[in-house]
Write a structure and sequence with these properties.
Structural class of chain A: alpha+beta
Helix content of chain B: 25-40%
Shape of chain A: elongated
Strand content of chain B: 5-15%
Largest sheet of chain A: 5 strands, antiparallel
Oligomer: heterodimer
Largest interface: A-B, 104 and 101 residues
Number of helices of chain A: 15
Radius of gyration of chain A: 37 Å
Number of helices of chain B: 9
Order of helices and strands of chain B: HHHHHHEEHEEEEEEHH
Largest sheet of chain B: 6 strands, antiparallel
């Protein structure tokens, strides 16, 4: 058929034209007559391809809108995360404790208390949870950023859309949340070596009311007792007149001079006497019930049932003795006569102004020698001022006890009363109270590195916290964990901005615990801190960096958001939780009874509200048992710990009872109480699309925006 | 013989193939159009939803910044949280401190001192007013004093004396009167949420005096001279019924298991500014009372329907409808501004929500945005009256 057409058209070709040209001409003529079927098919195919290509652009628009939605959600989530990170109260009740060694007791660890966004926010009450590592490793991203971050030790996080960090889950919105399960995020940029929120050995600042008796704590028989037992029985807690189950132990009074730590045996005996008399006075019946006579409801341990007034006088005499001694030791013995005894004074306000001038001069002089290096003169001056503060504190305490009245009763006539040899008046009491308060406030503001006197309750500010960080460039300390079969642990050494004076002893563990052996005659702070890292506890002060100059970029990290449908994986809910830092394990405080049973110490015993920063961040949705055999869509409510489906042991770190702690059976990660399995097999890799990046300020100190 | 006439049409096979191809192309194109149409529709719907969510988010953040839902300073604006209760003289969160007589009468540049009998005991917005170094800002109450009237047992702890001689709301009773008057003035003026927002984080909410706060649930003064209403856990007034420690406390301790909330405009009663909500402790997923939560959300809600005016829909009916609500409260010492943008599908009526918290203007900041009466304060105005706020007469 094709040749016949060519023949027909060649018949009309001009003569003398070469045959090949004639054939092309014939073909051209034929083309003008119409397309061949093949050409039509090709054309249609091309057109179809073009049309379909154009039409396929429309889903791209849809995808772009999905990305826009993701950007919106990421922006809202970022506002929320930053607000929570910056605005949340920095009080963490169970993070402020003491331990004989960081590895011995309730988990104090740099890694679970550091002031970094991901550490602060990835907690079980926030809904911010690490993506299972098994799944995270299957995700590709631009520049392979996700895998790089994972290799550096970071986590990817997903957020429970129904939870709002910092807000009780019960106040969550009753409407279903906007679908945000595809959004994951990570913190990019290296964390800094932050300040230590609390020195593990001594949770300074200790706080006290001003005025107040010496700080104390009750020690039962299971506690590690201090060497010199400045303690009195707590009679109201039960006893038979000879033995008592609970002892009140003074937590102050190891006042060495300067920066040399006091020996545990070097208790201030005059302060101890104040403590004993104050305890004795408090253990009386309510003075307002019968202020003129005392009918003891118990037999004091010494069998000497004194009257209330006698007890008050004894307290006053102890306070005066301490004050006179403290003024003398501080080198201002004459001031005791001028400002404490103050004979013949009627204008106590003027006297107060005079004292104020001299006290400020002493404070300034104590700081005249500046610098971070050790200086014995400066350090001695500091502790001297601390002594004076304590003196005013106890004087104000004792004098206040003379003004006992009910609000509705006439004022007592103090002119008939004497405190020691000092005649009393209402103005004198006010004067003592003012000196006590002012001395404490000025001292606390001026000397954060002197721990001779506790910080005033009524003035709790960030400057009360000395700057302490861990020394990452000196080999860490290490030791055997008590009751752990010789297992060793290690922790960096602390370094402070200045050498700490009047460090005293820890209140809770006033001694040293080494591999289960308690030694009360040794202080953890013992030994001269040469600031060179050779001290048994402190690191090398030249490695201290918190006060160094820094570039803004050093304080910047990034929140990076991606979208990826990770919940389509078949194991989205059965994959084990991301690895948990061991420091987030619950742990009992160490005491006499459990020091040889570390596994037993891992039984938890810390209530929920007290340990929000511990435990598995997926705790709220973790499965307590293996649900992998259940068909998809099964109701898994009974497998959730928070629904009462498990015993508390699953949340603990003890051997054989840590399924929820480690999240080994996965979690109901979309919180629909059903077991979900996606269609995507584990062998398939997914690509995460970057949504947005946000730079934020990363502080090195625990700070709160208000 | 004439040669056969050239073919002028497709053969049947060609036609069938052509038709098949054509149908295939048409079907493909049709399917593509359908997909594209669906994509366009979905895209448009998603774009509209995104726009609505974005508008809702911006409006919610705007409300978090400017508080106009709670107090609209524009002429004729709704301001239900101002004024004074005729019954007991207590104020509301947006009550002008001048109406309460609780404002520092000194000039803006006056220096502070605490001379006996000083009249400077009202609120000053000066950044130096609450300087931690200033003796007048130091609480001098006895932390161990229990504010119960029960004379038996361990209470009241008056072993340590009557601290009303050191600090008292009456300047004739003590050397220090500023701190107690600040506490009293803030409770009377703003209620609990305002009290704990204005007081420094570390402050104790206590004073010695002979009279209780306005609107107190208990008018008793303790043996030691503190209003029992400020310390007694059992009263459920300032202190939550938690712990049984009837002693003075501050913001963090008192909001550990409870919340102090900013009342929404729809719940503007005097009592409401002095209520707290006790809704459990920790983030557990069970064991709470749903009605308490509903009440809490109702009381704290500042809500706006963005697409309605006086209840009438003003946007196309096929658009998703968006509203926002903002709740403000203090939880565990943390002032929270919780925003919830809610969107309702016009087709199904289904609702989705975008809840989030954000850094926002404090009540103190909001009060200092507003002039007494109508209008926004302008700190840069040359006219003194335009620089006034609800907190101060002129710039501190």
């Amino acid at each position: 058929m094709r040749s016949m057409r060519q023949d027909d058209h060649s018949a009309n070709a001009p003569a003398g034209v070469p045959a090949d040209v004639r054939i092309r001409a014939i073909r051209n003529i034929a083309a003008r007559h119409g397309f061949t079927l093949f050409e039509v098919a090709i054309s249609l195919a091309i057109m179809g391809f073009a049309v379909i290509s154009v039409l396929m652009v429309f889903p791209l628009g849809l995808k772009e809108q999905q990305q826009a939605r993701a950007r919106l959600l990421a922006a809202a989530k970022t506002m929320e995360l930053i607000e929570y990170f910056a605005g949340k109260s920095n009080s963490e009740r169970m993070a402020e404790f003491e331990t004989p060694e960081p590895w011995e007791t309730r988990p104090f660890s740099y890694t679970n208390t550091r002031w970094d966004l991901e550490t602060r926010l990835a907690r079980f009450d926030s809904g911010i949870r690490p993506l299972p590592l098994d799944i995270a490793k299957r995700l590709d991203s631009d520049g392979d950023e996700i895998q790089r971050l994972l290799a550096e030790g970071a986590h990817l996080y997903y957020a429970d859309a129904a939870m709002i960090p910092g807000v009780d889950i019960r106040l969550r919105n009753p409407s279903p949340a906007v679908e945000s399960n595809k959004i994951i995020f990570a913190v990019s940029g290296y964390a800094q070596n932050n300040a230590v929120p609390v020195l593990p050995w001594k949770a300074w600042p200790y706080r006290a009311a001003y005025p107040s008796p010496p700080l104390s704590a009750t020690f039962g028989s299971s506690r590690f007792m201090p060497q010199v037992d400045v303690m009195v029985p707590v009679i109201k807690n039960g006893g038979n007149g000879t033995t008592y189950s609970t002892q009140a132990v003074m937590l102050e009074g190891w006042m060495g001079v300067g920066a040399d730590p006091a020996l545990p045996s070097a208790r201030e005996q005059l302060m101890a006497e104040v403590f004993r008399k104050a305890q004795d006075y408090t253990e009386t019946v309510n003075p307002m019930t019968n202020p003129t006579s005392f009918t003891p409801s118990f037999t004091p341990p010494d069998g000497n049932a004194m009257s209330l007034m006698t007890k008050r006088t004894a307290l006053a005499e102890a306070c005066l003795a301490f004050a006179q001694d403290a003024f003398t030791r501080a080198g201002i013995g004459a001031n005791y006569q001028t400002y404490v005894v103050a004979p013949g004074i009627t204008d106590f306000r003027a006297l107060g102004s005079q004292w104020h001038t001299e006290f400020v001069q002493r404070c300034v002089a104590a700081e005249a020698i500046t610098g971070a290096s050790a200086n014995a003169t400066r350090e001695t001056r500091r502790t001297s001022i601390g002594l004076e503060v304590q003196a005013w504190r106890f004087l104000a305490l004792a004098s206040a006890t003379y003004y006992l009245r009910r609000e509705s009763e006439p004022e007592p006539d103090l002119s008939m009363l004497m405190m020691g040899t000092i005649p009393l008046s209402t103005d004198r009491l006010r004067y003592y109270n003012d000196r006590c308060t002012e001395a404490a406030m000025r001292y606390a503001a001026s000397f954060p590195y002197d721990w001779t006197a506790p910080r005033p309750h009524a003035r709790a500010i960030m400057m009360d916290y000395p700057l302490i960080e861990f020394d990452l460039f000196t080999p860490p300390r290490s030791g055997a964990i008590s009751g752990a079969g010789g297992s060793m642990a290690a922790m960096w050494r602390p370094v402070s901005a200045q050498r700490i004076t009047g460090v005293g002893l820890p209140g809770v563990f006033p001694g040293v615990l080494e591999a289960g052996t308690w030694t009360s005659s040794v202080s953890p702070f013992a030994g001269t801190d040469g600031r060179d890292g050779t001290h048994r506890l402190w690191g090398d002060a030249s490695h201290f960096t918190l006060t160094r100059k820094f570039h803004p970029r050093d304080r910047c990290r990034e929140l990076v958001f991606w979208t990826v449908d990770w919940q389509s994986y078949e194991d989205a809910e059965t994959a084990p939780a991301a690895p948990l830092d061991a420091s987030r394990t619950l742990c009992h405080g160490v005491h006499q009874g459990n020091r040889n049973d570390y596994d037993g110490r891992l039984r938890g015993g810390v209530s929920t509200e007290d340990a929000l920063h511990l435990r598995n961040p997926e705790r709220m949705v973790s499965f307590t048992r293996d649900v992998s055999a259940l068909p998809s869509g099964s109701d898994v409510t009974s497998a959730l710990m928070t629904q009462g489906g498990a015993n508390l042991g699953s949340d603990q770190g003890r051997t054989g009872s840590r399924t929820v702690l480690l999240g080994i059976y996965g979690a109901d990660r979309n919180r629909n109480y059903l077991l979900d399995r996606g269609p995507v097999p584990k062998s398939v890799r997914m690509r995460a699309t970057q949504v947005s990046r946000f730079t934020y300020y990363d502080p090195r100190l625990p700070i709160t925006l208000r | 013989m004439t040669s056969p006439r050239p073919l002028s049409a497709f053969t049947l096979i060609e036609l069938m193939i052509a038709v098949s191809l054509g149908m295939l192309v048409l079907y493909t194109a049709f399917a593509a159009v359908r997909v594209a149409t669906g994509a366009v529709t979905a895209s448009q719907r998603l774009a509209t939803e995104n726009a609505m969510l974005r508008i809702g988010l911006e409006a919610a953040v705007d409300e978090a910044d400017f508080w106009t839902g709670s107090d609209d300073p524009e002429v004729g604006g709704n301001r239900p949280l101002r004024g004074i209760d005729a019954g007991n003289g207590a104020g509301r969160p947006f009550t002008d401190f001048r109406d309460l007589g609780f404002i520092d009468p000194a000039a803006a540049n006056a220096t502070w001192n605490e001379t006996p009998g000083s009249t400077r005991r009202g609120w000053s917005a000066s950044p130096l007013a609450w300087s931690a170094a200033d003796p007048r800002t130091w609480c001098r109450a006895n932390v161990a004093e229990e504010g119960t009237v029960n004379p038996g047992g361990n209470s009241p702890r008056t072993f340590w004396g009557h601290f009303g001689i050191y600090s008292h709301i009456d300047p004739n009773r003590a050397w220090h009167a500023w701190y107690p008057n600040q506490v009293r003035g803030l409770i009377d003026g703003l209620g609990f949420y305002g009290l704990f927002e204005y007081l420094p984080s570390n402050a104790f909410a206590i004073y010695h005096g002979t009279t209780p706060p306005k609107g107190a649930s208990n008018n008793t003064i303790s043996f030691g001279g503190v209003p029992v209403a400020l310390t007694d856990n059992g009263l459920n007034w300032l202190c939550p019924s938690d712990g049984g420690d009837n002693t003075m406390k501050g913001r963090i301790r008192n909001s550990n298991g409870s919340r102090y909330y900013m009342p929404g405009p729809q719940a503007a009663t005097i009592g409401d500014a002095r209520l707290l909500a006790k809704i459990g402790y920790e983030g557990r997923d069970s064991g709470y009372n749903a009605s308490e939560i509903t009440n809490f959300l109702d009381r704290t809600r500042t809500r706006r329907e963005l697409m309605r005016r006086n209840g009438v829909l003003t946007a196309p009916g096929h658009w998703p409808e968006v509203t926002y609500r903002v709740h403000r409260f203090i939880e565990r010492g943390h002032p929270v501004t919780l925003c919830v943008v809610e969107m309702t599908s016009p087709l199904t009526g289904a609702q989705i929500a975008l809840p989030f918290t954000t850094v926002a203007t404090t009540l103190r900041g909001a009060r200092q945005q507003r002039r007494p009466g109508d209008g926004w304060s302008d700190p840069f105005s040359a006219i003194a009256a335009e620089r006034e706020t609800l907190d101060y007469v002129d710039l501190p």
